[in-house]
């Protein structure tokens, strides 16, 4: 991996709510996000001299996390409390697409993508811990994350992959031959094949990442996959993951009760479909913490955060 370059912030935009966890940009460069109180927001004029505009599009009644603009004009939402949702951006109506799989409630939907054949793929981070105890899953290293598929017209998702370490961000390859899944608890990106001789199989895509991968996003088939790093690697945590299950459970009981405060180190990566890192941007001692998402808007990067009450607008790197 190349030596990292600076992640340079240019503007901080408050959104009137806490935790804009995922950010996605539409074709006009406007950014959509969801906040802790259930609102779906659209942010406009983030990168120009004009005053930014924050517009409420809908309310999910839960806790929206990963977002995806569907080709039919709706917005797909992974809601940590309600499951996989569809939001009509014109009328604000919210519809539940799936809230269970094989009779088990979807506890912690995380990120979602829609492919050209109408299939919707989404991740579940943990079957054991809810969102407000997410750190428990990272510490215990449960490996209960999942990748699921909802076929066109169906309301019953199927499980494609199990045993993932806090399955999180999701993005397709440019030709839709595979999906890239972020495994936050394993510091890696995993590839799941959709076509070809290895259809239905998974393999490591990029391992040993310099931080905890969270949401991932790409603007289109020719753009890179942008990977947010929610925090740096923590050597004691790496050591704990190699320990016994009993030791991890004991540490988890402490972790879920202790007050959490993210570090000031943030970072993002841009990777291509061959698994090569094209950009690695970092900032130490950042005032904007816990970057859980990143997207491109014009010639800037927009960062989301589970922790902050707004988004950060940063310089995008020069193309390589």
Protein model, in words:
- There is one protein chain.
- The longest helix has 11 residues.
- The model has no long low-confidence stretch (mean pLDDT 94).
- The strands form seven sheets. This protein has a five-stranded mixed sheet, with no helix packed on it. A four-stranded antiparallel sheet has the order 2-27-26-25, with no helix packed on it.
- Helix 1 packs antiparallel against helix 3.
- The protein starts with a strand and ends in a 5-residue tail after the last strand.
- It is globular and about 55 Å long.
- Strand 15 and strand 16 form a beta hairpin.
- It has a single domain, classed as Neuraminidase.
- The protein contains three helices and 27 strands.
- With 320 residues, the protein is mainly β.
Question: Which features does this protein show?
Answer:
four-stranded antiparallel β-sheet, glycoprotein, SMP-30/gluconolactonase/LRE family protein, mainly beta, phosphoprotein, five-stranded mixed β-sheet, Neuraminidase, 27 strands, 320 residues, Strictosidine_synth_cons-reg
Give a topology summary.
Elements: E1 5-6, E2 9-14, E3 23-25, E4 31-34, E5 39-44, E6 53-59, E7 64-69, E8 75-79, E9 83-87, E10 94-98, E11 100-101, E12 104-105, E13 109-114, E14 120-124, H1 134-140, E15 145-150, E16 158-164, E17 167-172, E18 178-183, E19 188-193, E20 202-206, E21 211-217, E22 225-232, H2 235-241, H3 245-255, E23 266-271, E24 277-283, E25 291-297, E26 300-305, E27 310-315
Helix pairs in contact: 1-3
